[in-house]
Specification:
The protein has 106 residues and is mainly α. The chain has a single domain, classed as Protein tyrosine phosphatase superfamily (Protein-Tyrosine Phosphatase, Chain A), CATH 3.90.190. 53% of the residues lie in helices and 6% in strands.
Length: 106
């Protein structure tokens, strides 16, 4: 078997261009969430990639769960934290996602 046949190709939704401050627009999140979903639909798998895998990638994963799997925002957040123990989504991302999905404070 050739090396090329052994390589597993994972489609990547690159979210490194999101910032951890408050400068991202809701449209920025919407585009990244939609990209991750499109790749998941097309390939059956997707890697949502930032730098450390702690905040931005998990924020987009949370968004995919809410938008496309009809999960409650807080249930999706708990699932992300359960599956990615190092997840620590920046409060700016949480705030923007709450606005995007019209989540009321608990």
């Amino acid at each position: 078997m050739r090396l090329e046949e052994l390589l597993i190709v994972w489609p990547v939704a690159d979210v490194r261009d999101l910032y951890d401050d408050d400068s991202n627009d809701l449209e920025d999140y919407e585009k990244k969430i939609d990209l991750a979903w499109e790749l998941l639909q097309k390939h059956g798998k997707v890697v949502i990639c930032c730098v450390a895998g702690i905040s931005r990638s998990n924020a987009i994963a949370l968004g995919v769960l809410v938008k496309y799997f009809d999960m409650d925002f807080y249930d999706a957040w708990e699932l992300v934290k359960e599956r990615v123990p190092r997840a620590n989504i920046n409060p700016n991302h949480i705030s923007k996602l709450k606005k995007l999905f019209n989540v009321t404070p608990t």
